[in-house]
Amino acid sequence: MNARKKIEVSGLRLSFGDKEVLHGISFDVYAGEILGVIGPAQSGKTSLLRCINRTIEFTPGARVGGRIAVDGQDVQHVKDVHGLRRKIGMVAPLPVGLPLSIYDNVAFAPRAAGARDRAWLDGHVEQCLRQAALWDEVKERLDVLGTKLSGGQQQRLTIARALSHQPEILCLDEFSIAIDPVTTMRIEDVLKELSRDMTIVLVTNLVQQARRLAARTLFLWNGHIVELDRTEVVFSDSPGDRRTYEYVNGIFG
Amino acid sequence: MSLPRSPERPAGRGRLAVLFEQAIELLIRLCGISAIVFVFGIFFFVFREGAPYLAQLDLGAFLFSSDWYPSNDPAHYGAGALLLGTLSVTLLAMLMAVPFGLGAAVFVSEFSAPRTREVLKIVIELLAAVPSVVWGFIGMSVLGPLIKDVFQVPLGVNMFNAALLLALMSVPIIVSIGEDALKAVPDSYREAALALGATRWQTVFRMLFPAAKNGLLAAVLLGVGRAIGETMAVLMATGHSARIPTSLFDPVQTLTATIAAELGEARQGSEHYQVLFLIGVLLFTLTFAVNLTADLVVKGIRRK
Ligand SMILES: Nc1ncnc2c1ncn2[C@@H]1O[C@H](COP(=O)(O)OP(=O)(O)OP(=O)(O)O)[C@@H](O)[C@H]1O
Ligand SMILES: [Mg+2]
Predict the structure, then answer these.
(1) What's the total number of domains in chain B?
(2) A163 inside 8 A of chain B by CB
(3) Interface contact flag, B202 A113, Cβ < 8 Å
(4) Which bound ligand lies closest to the C-alpha atom of A57?
């Protein structure tokens, strides 16, 4: 594994109002790895991702402390936050098809970045939709509203959209919530493929999904990192922390 | 209602609840139908008053001639200049009010701090509460002299003056309805767009506007409706002269102001009286056409 650090998180604290949600967590994500993030509801997984691409700042009352660096650059001090966000593909847990056509959903980010060439956009949109295993279902009706798709299709649309700005990092937040097992497997294969030249942070409630895909797995619990280790270790009979064993095996609290 | 009934609940009460629900449903249906009845009723009564004149009506002259001489002998009832007056004043007002109103709606909903937003909303609502006769007064005594000085024109009460007033009157409507429409777009859409690297402005133009287009269109239309229907302010500020305008600073006369000014003098049942009601029908048709067009546009967008 390439040991270059793509994301460095150190002493990250996050609070909403006076409620602290992340209590000073530190970890690194290496370039080209898939890092699984597991943990029970409310443990702060979604918030963690939103800190990385700084969309957390659109929540009034959210305060971030500590440091997150992407490619060695502190995200709080990047010159071009839009460029930073384009470097990070984000797949939100609830499928959010923007109220635009399917085509415009996928072309949104490239256009925002200045892409105008129609032929290039056509090809690019097709490629992204193919990678998200959605192309065959929608190729005849690219001008239909994205919000008219089924839940699972919308979720794949958000994946296509997250890939559309050719990110170096892909953050997936429970991407398979509304997707059937067969399609999930297809997308998991795509993710393995993509991880050759992309760094992937995979937040998932399906611990087995982390086991299948992730090189290392981070167990987040109540805003603390309980354990971060190679996935074999986390899923072994004797991980570093008893709580990890209990959570992974479904005998948690 | 096919919810399983809990066993301890007495059967009679359930039936009462069902009856109650049916009564409410009926009531709501009646409310809906009554709206339709009222619209047709108004149209019918206005039309009935004007109908006797229809036999003599020269539609071409009525719509396109600018000879409005109701008290001459023989009288001329060419409403072309009035129609043009209404259309031109409304169009000019909308050219000012729509960009300004939508811009303000975007600012209030997307860019202002909560405190500023509250203050702005109160001010805008106050603006909406100013009676139209007060606006007319402002047009005559404040705007008029100002326009005369600034633009070096002989008459301060003219098309531009009235359009400015109408714009000021429609802006509050456009802002408050437009802001509601923008606020109704879920935050998750905004965050998704921003996460894709869009700037705030790109988010507004490429995501928010398409997402809120129906509500924004409704806002604009209500503004147009306000402008077309407004009577008092335009009566006072247009200069009220039935001629074809050739410049922004020419006086004009609108359909509404004509009715308001002349209906009192026209003997009931006279030709003049009937024609004024036909002008009412024309006005009605105009607003109907605007709304219908908008509906079709929205449906056209939605079908995609
Ligand atoms: N916008 C917000 N405003 C206030 N509190 C928030 C907000 N978003 C999240 N929180 C709080 O932060 C904590 C962590 O939430 P987060 O969504 O990050 O958890 P999660 O691990 O993603 O949970 P889940 O598995 O249910 O998605 C929760 O206690 C939640 O109530
Ligand atoms: Mg979550």
Answers:
(1) 1
(2) no
(3) no
(4) 1
The CA distances from residue A47 to A82, A123, B301, in Å, are 19, 34, 36
In a domain, B265, yes or no: yes
Tokens 């040991």 found at: A3
For residue range B239-297, what is the model confidence (pLDDT) as tens digits?
999 889 999 999 999 999 999 999 999 999 899 999 999 999 999 999 888 888 877 87
Give me the residues paired with residue A19 across strands.
A16
* pLDDT tens-place string over residues B266-276: 999 899 999 99
Domains by residue range for chain A, with CATH: 5-248 (3.40.50.300)
Could you read off the pLDDT tens digit of each residue along chain A, which spans 253 residues?
447 899 999 999 999 999 999 999 999 999 999 999 999 999 999 999 999 999 999 998 999 999 999 999 999 999 999 999 999 999 988 767 788 999 999 999 999 999 999 999 999 999 999 999 999 999 999 999 998 998 888 889 999 999 999 999 999 999 888 888 988 998 898 899 888 889 999 999 899 999 999 999 999 999 999 999 999 999 999 888 999 999 999 886 5
Q: Judged by CB atoms within 8 Å, which residues 68-97 of A form the interface with B?
A: 82-83, 85-86, 88, 90, 92, 94, 96
Element (H, E) at A27: strand A19-30
- Closest-CA residue of chain B to A158: B192
Does ligand 1 come within 6 angstroms of the Cβ of A45?
yes
Nearest CA to ligand 1 atom 31: A42
Q: Which residues of B touch A56 (CB under 8 A)?
A: none
Query: Alpha helix locations (H) across chain B?
Result: 11-50, 59-64, 80-106, 114-128, 132-138, 144-151, 159-183, 187-195, 200-202, 209-211, 213-229, 232-237, 255-262, 271-303
Residue B191 is assigned to a structural domain of this protein: yes
Give residue A95's pLDDT: 66
Does B253 reside within a domain?
yes
Give the closest of A101, A112, A144 to B196, CB-based.
Answer: A112
User: Ligand 1: distance of its center to the CA of B126 in Å?
Assistant: 40
Phi-psi region of A44 (alpha: psi -120 to 50; beta: other; left: phi over 0): left
Q: What CATH number does residue B113 fall under? A: 1.10.3720.10
Non-local (6+) Cβ contacts of A83 within 8 A are B197
Tell me the ipTM for this assembly: 0.88
Mutate to test the interface with A, among B109, B110, B194, B196 (most CBs of A within 10 A): B196
Range of the domain at B202: 85-274
> Closest residue (by CA) to atom 3 of ligand 1?
A16
Tokens representing B19 are: 């009856």
